[in-house]
Write a structure and sequence with these properties.
Elements (H helix, E strand, L loop, with lengths): L8 E3 L6 E3 L2 H6 L2 E3 L6 E3 L6 H41 L1
Antiparallel strand pairs: 1-2, 3-4
The protein binds zinc ion (ZN).
């Protein structure tokens, strides 16, 4: 068992090919279709809740990074204006 598959996806139970699935797809869609044998895989969100939670956490973390970086950018520009105002007052 030394399979290091870097492509994210689900292994097709019928043809054993990897069906590439993105995190977004897993979270939003209810089924995935195998491009090799056209088998429709239904994503059981109840059964795979733990995995889904982990995935949404990753997704959230990515969103947070974006939020935080824009916040830092805003805070930095605000500090500059405060700083110049303070210098004027003194
Ligand atoms: Zn297949």
């Amino acid at each position: 068992m030394n399979q290091t598959n870097k492509t994210p996806g689900i292994t097709c139970p019928r043809c054993n090919k990897t069906i590439p699935v993105s995190i977004e797809q897993l979270l939003t869609s209810h089924s995935v279709i195998c491009s090799s044998c056209c088998l429709v895989l239904t994503i059981d969100k109840q059964q795979s809740k733990k995995a889904m939670d982990a995935l949404s956490k990753v997704k959230k973390a990515q969103d947070e990074v974006e939020k935080v970086s824009t916040f830092i950018a805003k805070a930095a520009s605000k500090n500059t204006t405060d700083w110049s105002r303070q210098r004027r007052l003194t």
